[in-house]
Amino acid sequence: MAGVKSGAVLIWAALIVTGLSGCGGGSQDQVPLESLTAEQIYKQGELALETGAKPEKAIRYFSEVERLYPYSEWAKRSLIMQAFSQHKAQNYEDARSSAQRYLDLYPGEEDAAYAKYLLALSYYDQIDEVGRDQGLTFQALQGMRDVIETYPDSDYARSAILKFELAFDHLAAKEMEIGRYYLKKQQYTAAINRFRVVVQDFQTTTHTAEALHRLVEAYLALGLTDEAQTAGAILGHNYQSSPFYDDSHRLLTGRGLSMEAKGQSWLRNVYAQMIQGKWL
Fold first, then answer.
1. Per-residue pLDDT tens for 187-196?
2. How far, in Å, CA of 251 to CA of 266, rounded?
3. What's the rounded mean pLDDT across residues 144-166?
4. What is the pLDDT of residues 29-57, one digit of tens each?
5. Exposed, middle or buried, 20 (CB in 10 Å: 0-12/13-18/19+)?
6. 216 within some domain
7. Within a domain: residue 129?
8. Domain with 108 in it: what CATH number?
9. HSE of 111 in the Cβ direction (CA atoms, 13 Å)?
10. What is the CATH number of the domain that holds 255?
11. Where is the domain boundary, 70, 91, 118?
């Protein structure tokens, strides 16, 4: 096969197409890899991925290219493909190690953007259900931000933006989960602290409307009507189409209260920023 395109681009394209049928290459499996050229071993790794074999087989081929032909062009291509295969095998720590090694050795190469994206993706793909520790989410956010800032015009940056937003929403969901737990236990101050984080730090996520409603509930339970009304005012101004608006409206009007900004709490500052455009 004539000149090979950049490894990551080639395999990403190949994996979109239906897997190739068995097309030879088996004979090379029967001979020691030391007797094959770097290109032949590399092609065996490509074939293992294209035909749907377990990625561990491809990892072996790509790592052997590096071992047998260090500092060659094929070794460089094999390193990024090794990282790709390790990620595909869900060996995330190994994938991060290989991707970082590529960045250390070849920072100016075309596949450096993919290596940086793969580094972030290896954290992102480990983000589990909301209830798990969020350390990986923070690392995924940092990694995706790095891709966006370093390679803003790449396809990887566009994908990183979407994943950054999803990971950001994931963090807000974690705060909401903990806040609801405290609210259910009638630990209102602890609940308010969690919902406050969502309102102040995660305003662009899908959880802000509920966080404001839960603040109305918690503040009313504590008898802090000014804060409850101000949370309701923000909710009423920005999220009238939300079912949480209706719930807060019923809670407040049922007590003879209105959805208006009152008092001088932290919520009044949020109201001034979000509604009146006054950044204090």
1. 999 999 999 9
2. 21
3. 94
4. 566 788 889 999 999 999 999 987 789 99
5. exposed
6. yes
7. no
8. 1.25.40.10
9. 28
10. 1.25.40
11. 118
